[in-house]
Amino acid sequence: MSGFDLSLLEHDNLGSTIYQKLCEALMRGVFKPNDRLKIRDLAERLGTSVTPVRDAILRLVQDQALVLRSPRDIRVPMLTRAAYLEIRDIRVNLEGLAAARAAERATPTQIEQLEALLTHNEDAMAAGNTALATELNQIFHFRLAEIADMPVLGDILRRLWLQMGPLIADVYGGAGRTMIDHHYPLMDAIRRHDGPAAARAIQDDIQLASGPILERIDAERPEAQPQTQPETLVS
Question: What is the largest CA-CA distance in the chain?
Answer without folding.
Answer: 55
